[in-house]
Amino acid sequence: MELTWHGHSAWGVQLGDTSLLIDPFFDNPKTSLEPSDVDDPDYVLLTHGHADHIAHAAEYPEATLVAVPELAAYAEDEWGMDDAVGGMGMNLGGTVECGDAFVTMVRADHTNGIMTDYENSAGPPAGFVISDTKPTQESDPDSTAFYHAGDTSLMVEMREVVGPYLEPDAAAVPIGDHFTMGPGQAAIAVDWLDVDYALPMHYDTFPPIEQDPEDFRREVKAAGSDAEVVVLDGDESFSFE
């Protein structure tokens, strides 16, 4: 699986012949790309409706949208994106097959107003676990999985559900604080998830979330986790098996 960080919470995921783009937002200081510079993905995954996560989703009208039904309906009404997975989006706890990938939607603790003035609800916020096999209660040591935590606080679901049952190998976690977890809580999440690789995201985009990712590295070690912290530059890729 290959991961490419486009700054903030925007990630490209390549799994086999399937390309997925999560939370496309290119107006951030970590990327030099325009939305048109990114090859059209097969799937666009949206964790929630805040502008810094959905800003450029409409640039990929040929992609299949993966989002909760409320956000999928908004995308159809406002952007003409009527190709939502399952015809109506999906919801928390569900797993859908997306080409060579299986996408499981999990909870995120956050808010989910849509548009700048937050006047509409976009349903519950979410995170995603993307894997090359369908999750079951039988542990599969040969499976590969990536967890995009979305915008979230620390939550026990990471320890009780995501880690033991969905078994991610790598996790992208927000470290910006103020609107999400900061480095300390994100490090606890990494320890609970028992992942091999931890990738910080959702930082340095705006003044309130400026962070030194080395603080996150130190916090992960202090939490007792053996995870390797992988700090990417904008538009840099990382592969794992």
Give me the CATH architecture, please.
4-Layer Sandwich
Q: What structural class is derived from the secondary structure elements?
A: alpha/beta
Number of domains: 1
User: Treating each run of at least 4 consecutive H or I residues as one helix, how many helices?
Assistant: 5
Radius of gyration: 16 Å
Task: Assign the CATH superfamily.
Answer: Ribonuclease Z/Hydroxyacylglutathione hydrolase-like
State the helicity in percent bands.
10-25%
By DSSP, the count of extended strands is 15
Helix-strand sequence: EEEEHEHEEEEEEHEHEHEE
Strand order of the largest sheet: 6-7-10-11-12-13-14
Please write the CATH class name. Alpha Beta
Stated plainly, the CATH topology is called: Metallo-beta-lactamase, Chain A
Which whole number gives the mean pLDDT?
A: 96
Low-pLDDT regions: none
| Percent of sequence in beta strands | 25-35%
